[in-house]
Amino acid sequence: MEKLRQDFPKSEKVRAKSEIDRIFRTGARFSCKGMVVRVKRSSLDRSRAVFVAVRSFEGAVQRNRAKRIAREVWRLNKARIAPGHDVAIVLYPEFDSFAECSGLMLSLLRKAGLLR
Length: 116
Fold this sequence. Notes:
- It is a single chain.
- By secondary structure, the protein is α+β, with helices and mostly antiparallel strands.
- The protein is 36% helix and 22% strand.
- The chain has a four-stranded mixed beta sheet, with helices on both faces.
- β1 and β2 form a beta hairpin.
- The chain is globular and about 40 Å long.
- The two termini are 21 Å apart.
- The mean pLDDT is 93.
């Protein structure tokens, strides 16, 4: 039985500015207090993500911590996410813990129809 990889390689990240702009310009928007998810269909066989933290965090340390937590939630749940989508996740300073971030992200992905 093949072991499911739980890493987060570059091939699963949206990195080009033009692709990120396309997601924000034409993607479907789902939001709740503390997080916004933008979703755009893609022709790839996997889903890719980009994480953006707004500048209203108290400082760079909190902003980077929020992105690390969100990337970890994505990495641990990527097997449950339907392939073929580019996702932009915008983070706001309303959540504090891994559990809270996980709950918010999974509820928004479920609302977007991306969870299997």
